[in-house]
Specification:
single chain; 75 residues; mainly alpha; signal; Secreted protein
């Protein structure tokens, strides 16, 4: 019985210390919804990829055919 009690007195604080060590301190620049530097860079690269795939302005000026199976309304 004494061995179990001694083990509990050692294991409980040790377990608590390990759990608390895993908790990170709150930083002032880690606001909810903010992105880390690597996330911000990935978002920037994704935005550049999307912008590079935009249609040229002359593609928007071409006449549009109606979708298959749909008739255009009479003017």
């Amino acid at each position: 019985m004494k061995r179990t009690t001694t083990l509990a007195f050692i294991a409980l604080p040790l377990t608590a210390a390990c759990l608390l060590a895993g908790c990170g301190g709150a930083s002032s620049d880690d606001a909810p919804g903010s992105a880390s530097a690597s996330e911000a860079q990935a978002l920037e690269e994704a935005a550049e990829m999307i912008e590079a795939q935009r249609l040229p302005p002359e593609a928007m000026n071409q006449s549009r055919d109606p979708a298959p199976g749909r008739e255009q309304p009479a003017p």
